[in-house]
Design a protein that fits this description.
Number of helices: 10
CATH topology: Uracil-DNA Glycosylase, subunit E
Shape: globular
Largest sheet: 6 strands, mixed
CATH class: Alpha Beta
Number of domains: 1
Radius of gyration: 16 Å
Strand order of the largest sheet: 1-3-2-4-6-5
Structural class: alpha/beta
Strand content: 5-15%
Helix content: 40-55%
Order of helices and strands: HEEHHEHEHHEEHHHH
Length: 205
């Protein structure tokens, strides 16, 4: 793959898994002019399929707000999903076929962009990209230096998915994050994203 334009064309014509039989519009990435930070979400929803861009619905607006409040600009970011087609009934698939079909697209995006930072947005993105069994409520906000193929190193952080933040909390939970109401979860998401600019500054020292 020689360019992002070529990669985008291949994604939008992909028929590698069964999801494409149900939706005729895979959702590719969006990319700024100087993308240093790659956000990897879980899967597109109805709004994303309609507009052909990731994170443009209600959840997307929450993420966009957190990014903007952190001081990051659009030119600095790259946004994609771990799977490119909308899941059936908007439920993330419990089999690996769509994830395995889309993983080459994720790998190709990383190879072309070479981001300094990768942020997994949500538990499914964290589990399938990083191969981690640790739940997102425990892993979120923790930075790790992650080595990819070819000894390429990138700073990695998982964070909460905005759709999770939109849901209310469980006051009876023993998990501190699960107890938070929607405003508390959104504040935590913003706090995670707010650490990115300082991490970028550390990388240029």
């Amino acid at each position: 793959m020689n360019s992002l334009d070529e990669l985008k064309a291949k994604i939008t014509t992909c028929h590698a898994c069964y999801l494409r039989k149900h939706y005729d519009k895979p959702v590719p990435f969006i990319c700024g002019d100087n993308p240093e930070v790659m956000f990897i979400g879980e899967a597109p929803g109805a709004d994303e399929v309609e507009k052909g861009k990731p994170f443009v619905g209600r959840s997307g607006k929450m993420l966009q707000t957190a990014i903007r409040m952190s001081g990051l600009t659009f030119d600095q970011i790259f946004v994609t999903n771990i799977i490119c087609c909308r899941p059936l009934n908007n439920v993330f698939p419990d089999d690996n076929e769509p994830i395995l079909a889309c993983r080459p697209w994720i790998d190709a995006q990383i190879q072309l962009v070479k981001p300094k930072i990768i942020v997994a947005v949500g538990g499914q993105a964290h589990r399938h990209f990083r191969g981690s069994a640790e739940g997102i409520t425990k892993a979120c906000g923790n930075w790790q230096l992650y080595t990819l193929e070819g000894d390429y190193q990138v700073w990695y952080m998982p964070t909460l998915h905005p759709s999770f933040c939109l849901r209310g909390g469980d006051p009876n939970s023993t998990n501190a994050v699960m107890k938070l109401d929607s405003k508390g979860k959104e504040a935590l998401l913003r706090a995670h994203i707010a650490t990115i600019p300082n991490k970028l500054k550390e990388l240029v020292k």
